[in-house]
Amino acid sequence: MKQGTEILVVDDEENICFVLDKLLTDEGHKVTTTSNGEEAIELYRARNYPLLMVDIRLPGMSGLELLEKIKEINPDAQVVVMTSHAQFDYAAKALSSGAYEFLLKPFDNLELVSVTIARAIEKIEIIEGNKALIEQLKLDKSKLDDINKVLVDLSIIDGLTGLFNHRYINDYLKTELARARRHEKTFSVLFLNIDNFKRYKDQHGHAQGNTLLREFSLVLKSCMRDSDLAARYGSEEFVMALPETSKTSAQKLAESILHRLEQHKFSGPDTSTTASIGIATYPNDGIDSIDIIRAADEAMYQAKSTGGNKVASASK
Fold it and tell me: According to the 3-state scheme, what is the secondary structure of 253-268?
């Protein structure tokens, strides 16, 4: 993850600003905080922050209004909105207005905050890389088709693992769930999390952690059917979309992944790696992509809470 990213935090709750300032500063970022949208606009015009964290509810100018003004100034600015459970509907409006992602307050899991910021920074780096690529190449029009293909790949592929990225899987799920709804088909999702990954990376280093992520991705690919799609969803989180797949069939596939992981000898100091897998199925566990992902994620945490290396299914 890129260090030293300038981040503007806009929230009128002093404790939230304090927690985010401490968390993000400790991770090497340069944090500025403010309590209102009007001052945030002035700060943004002066510094052009690549990443902002904005509370939906602010005194004076609302967070949604601030988001729209920032996007008018710079459409490439990445904005993570923060909202309470009671204001969840506003999060959907923020996403449709160009927000990168949303976080629910209060923060029960600071690691989720770090992961979300890391993903936003990855997108910023991709955008910057795309601009640099265009400036560097300066090719004639006959080669623009090749450039456009590269840019499309960069926007949907995770550079480390070669799997699809977080944004693409979300768009894909919306499309495929609409198709399943139209044709009255089932659709299952696997949410996978590598067990003890943070401890592994702390012990063996960032480079070895990346090697593990790449090898884990290869194991997933080896288990996939032609109709399945896999994506890196977060740092050590992965999602597999399984069209026209019942929960029973998804369970079998998840168990085969765990079995394949047991058989695979990973390179590096620890040759064995396990995962926790959650399963959710349309329509029983949710009717849209957000509900399905959330249900599969919660099932994954259920598997992890009982020791990991397990499969758990969502249940309503």
Answer: HHHHHHHHHHHCCCCC
**pLDDT 10s digits, 119-154:** 889 888 888 887 777 666 655 555 656 655 555 556
- Do the beta carbons of residue 56 and residue 62 sit within 8 Å? yes
Q: Please list the residue range(s) of the chain that carry CATH number 3.30.70.270.
A: 166-313
Contact 5, 124 (CB under 8 A): yes
Rounded CA-CA distance 180/212 in Å is 34
> What residue type is assigned to position 129 of the chain?
G
d(CA 196, CA 192): 13
Chain segment 26-80, per-residue pLDDT in tens: 999 999 999 999 999 999 999 999 999 999 889 999 999 999 999 999 999 999 9
The identity of residue 5, as a single letter, is: T
Query: CATH 3.40.50.2300 spans which residues of the chain?
Result: 6-122
Residues 270, 24: Cα–Cα separation, whole Å: 30
Give burial (CB, 10 Å; 0-12/13-18/19+) of 145: exposed
* pTM score of the predicted model: 0.55
Higher confidence at residue 226 or residue 192?
Answer: 192
CATH architecture of 166-313: 2-Layer Sandwich (3.30)
Structural tokens at position 145: 């088709």
Query: So what's the pLDDT on residue 137?
Result: 65
Distance between CA 80 and CA 238 in Å, rounded? 21
| Burial of 227 (C-beta count, 10 Å sphere; 0-12/13-18/19+) | exposed
- Computed from CA positions of residues 274, 278, 281, 287, in that sequence, does the dihedral angle turn out positive or negative? negative
**Residue 101 in contact with residue 116, Cβ under 8 Å?**
yes
Going by CATH, does the domain composed of 6-122 fall within 3.40.50.2300?
yes
Q: How far is CA 240 from the centre of its chain?
A: 14
